[in-house]
Amino acid sequence: MSTTTTTPRAGAAAPAPPPPAPRRRRRSGVERLERRWGPLMIAPVVLGFLLFTVGPMIASAVIGLTDWSIGGTPRFVGVDNFVEILTADPYFPISLRRTFLYAIIAVPGSMLVAFGIAVLLNQDVRGKGVLRTIFYLPVLVPAVASAVLWMWIYNPDFGLANAVLRAVGLPTSLWVFGEGSAVPSIALMAVWACGNMALIFVAGLQGVPRSLYEAAEVDGAGAWYKLRHVTIPYLSPIILYNLITGMIAAFQVFDQAFVMTGGGPNNATLFYVLNIYYAAFRDGRLGYASALAWILFVIVVIITVITFRIAQRGVFYEGGRAR
Amino acid sequence: MATIRPRTGIRPPAPPRGARPSRRSLLGIAAAGIALPPALSGCSYFTADTDPDALRFTFWGSPEEKDAVTSVMDMYTGTSGVTTVAEHIPGDYATKLNALVAGNIEPDAGYLPEAMAMRLGAAGRIDDLFAQGDRYPKLTGLMPSAVHQWTPGSGTMQSAVEVIMLYIDPEVCAAAGVAPPTRLDEAFDPDGFVAAADALTVDREGRHPSEAGFAPHSIERYGISGLSGTQSLYNLLHSNGCPVFDEAGTRSLFSTPEAVEVVTWVQELIHEHRVMPSPAQMQSVGGDAPGQLGSGRVAMVSTGQWELLNFTGTEMPYDVAVLPSFGQPAVMTYSGANAVFSSSPRLEETWELMNMLADPEVNPLFTNGLWMPVQEHCYRDEEFIARWTSGEVYPPGYREACIDATREAAIPSPHYSIRDYDRIDTQIGNILSSAWSGETPAREACAALDSQLEGLLQGRYEEAAL
Questions:
Q1: Do A32 and B16 touch (CB under 8 A)?
Q2: CATH topology of domain A80-312
Q3: Based on the structure, what is the number of domains in chain B?
Q4: For residue B94, which residues of chain A lie inside 8 Å, CB to CB?
Q5: Based on CB atoms within 10 Å of each CB, which residue in A100, A247, B210, B407 is the most buried?
Q6: pLDDT score at B14
């Protein structure tokens, strides 16, 4: 960009300088390209989100206000479905309790194990690329295949889990076949498949500056102090991210119960989404199922907001809180 | 005045690169354009890809069942000139059909799970069988237990009659000195059955459960499997005088002494007598009846007569027998419905296809072991029975244990008559599973069933006497 300046002539009264023209930054080629093509490139995602997420959500909100049995005609009933769910449905509190229990076990369990794995995978060891792939593999196993695999592991008579317990002299368990042990067993499967979280932690760990560790070492910090005062504060935004996404995923647990237990034994694994599925596709009550889904949405939003509020205080952002 | 000019040699800014799409961008758009139609073609499966005039029939089942239904539909096309489409949905059938009905793109006809058939029938979405009168000969004279009404005088029919019986390994039974009866009036009583199952159960050392030193964690062969399934259990409950639900269909009868006796007995088969695997132990025992008998892991299997089809082509010895009984003869008949959707634009042709599918002389499913006919005369007509059972798949005991027993003691299953039965069935299986795992005493499980089903039982569909 060229600029023009005038030099006042000697003896002449200096005229007031004109207001400077607004400086317009010339965009780079990449920036212009992005401006022109960016909207087109993100259009599939935006359209997909509008058509397949926002659209169905709006439709489900409307359906939730109707008494619609599949095959019948929807009838507007206002908030009757919500009132029935909250006051008369015996499976609503059961499914909510079981889902909360699952989330309480699975989310912290997965995060702890994923963090431990990530710390190990971040060490400078040979073959760490292969190790990272191995730890990520469970994420790639289809849900049904993993359910079948774990059914064998959990078999009370000849399964691997009880064989290990017997070998070390511990009492055996009924695992998914037992009322008390079914939810922890399914949560353990989630811990097994924590490779995604671990990968995110690894990425975060690689962003921790070496200089901070070196400075800590100069100050005489050991491994524990480095972990506590350098690694964890630096990773806190990633911990928060994993916590939020993990919790949202935990509230949507479905596959394992659907394939392995059908909600049993004695409704021990009647998770919330399984309850929604049963209401919609077993009982054919679309209006009621939509209302159930909206209640879950509200619960997840509330929990997410509370978690954000509480966790934000302990989260360290490198550029300050404004970020 | 000094003017700063652009330095010589510096070219004026090039036209923005994004002004015109580059070749690469155009290639990308073209690729997306090419990829999009096939990706979206699935969306039009039920509109563009399917002949709009074709008669669509949806069904579930094994590859053999698919071939048989398709062959009948081809036969119908050959005789009527009506184009038919056999839409085989092997898994998650109810979910998919519910989605089709909710989207108002249901087929002309199809198999329907029992409770769904009644729900859709009551909503006016299923064409009334009774309104067809005598127009279709194979849809008249039906077994009373195979016809179900959603309102008095309106209803549908089962696609077949199916019953639960015992599949046995005759060589193992003979070696153990056990002769499972094929006649209802000679059925094992509970104690006799436990003794027989004990004689058939052995651990790796060849000891029976009643013998000292029997190793319950090393069972080589179980005497019986499958009696804890609700279909088998309902037969046992009825044989003990417990009809599972009260007359009005608003109360479960699981807490009655008769029901508690039966549930306790089945639980003891697993945990006290050690002659039957628990649901968890079933994993090591094998899947279908031929698998269980063929592997030598079980000597008697309680399951549906439809499993006969799975024995086709096997060289293994097998026979069938009646279930044990607590005194009253009872053979509960099962099977999904064959229903015509009232939205079909070709109702007459669809009912003609139904007529052909129900014809045991035409549909190979009635002679290959999968289905039993729905027409009452088929259970009395000796000539027909001879033709019916002439296939190699039918073992010697079939006539008495299956055909005669069904004729003498058939009772309808509650899957049709109790409203919203699917959710009831899920809960029954769900709660009883803790009894079968040994966690909950049978009496407690029965009490839990009564209390938990209380809010779910909404009565029966009203029926008129036929």
A1: yes
A2: MetI-like fold (1.10.3720)
A3: 2
A4: 281-282
A5: A247
A6: 46
